[in-house]
TrEMBL record:
InterPro entries recorded: At4g02000-like
Record-given protein name: DUF4283 domain-containing protein
Organism: Gossypium davidsonii
């Protein structure tokens, strides 16, 4: 709908009255505190109970100040935090957030950015990579494997006591619109190929 309107406006010839521009005197006030705003979308086929979803997200986030949700359309939700910017950044870094086993994708609000340009389909997930030999458990291999899957966000291959584990744990941004990758084919230093299985943590329901 928005694309159709923009196409019509592009070729529209304005009358003398329509050519007069309206300058908002409230633009500065409206943008105050936008650093504490976010834009979210529930990635679900069936419409969820929004009030129930809002309650669940508030309880999961447990912010110091209240969080307000405003539905911009049937899918996109405006999230206004009453807290400081760094707390919002922390919540976004802790994604994925799920409601009823569906992904609630959330991105920072950007001034003058159109809703259609927010990439809600790109979301971070923790992955476990199996079958990587211990001698390959280094930062460079982790970066290479992560970049092969998507956009690497974080690396964690040690357990809670600081010891080595049998798996490599990576946080990677992936496109949830595409089928999930199941393996990584790693070529060792001796030229031998190793097929490394991928297991996703906290994976929501998907439909391609």
């Amino acid at each position: 709908m928005a694309d159709d309107i923009n196409a019509l406006l592009k070729n529209l010839k304005f009358s003398e009255e329509e050519s007069v521009r309206v300058i908002s005197s409230n633009i500065v006030t409206n943008y105050q505190g936008f650093e504490a705003w976010a834009v979210g979308k529930i990635m679900a086929i069936e419409k969820p109970n929004r009030e129930a979803m809002y309650r669940v997200l508030r309880s999961l986030w447990f912010t110091k100040y209240d969080v307000n949700f405003v539905a911009l359309n049937e899918e996109v939700i405006f999230v206004k935090f009453g807290c400081v910017e760094d707390e919002i950044e922390s919540l976004i870094n802790m994604m994925p957030w799920l409601f009823d086993n569906c992904l609630f994708a959330m991105l920072p609000f950007v001034k003058d950015k159109e809703l259609e340009t927010y990439e809600f389909n790109i979301s971070p997930f923790w992955l476990r990579i199996y079958n990587i030999p211990l001698e390959y458990m280094d930062r460079q291999i982790a970066m290479d494997v992560g970049k092969a899957i998507g956009e690497l966000v974080a690396i964690d291959w040690k357990d809670r006591n600081g010891g080595w584990t049998e798996i490599m744990r990576l946080k990677v941004k992936i496109n949830v619109s595409n089928p999930l990758r199941r393996v990584v084919r790693l070529l060792g230093r001796n030229g031998v190929e190793m097929v490394c299985a991928i297991k996703y943590e906290r994976l929501p329901a998907f439909c391609y």
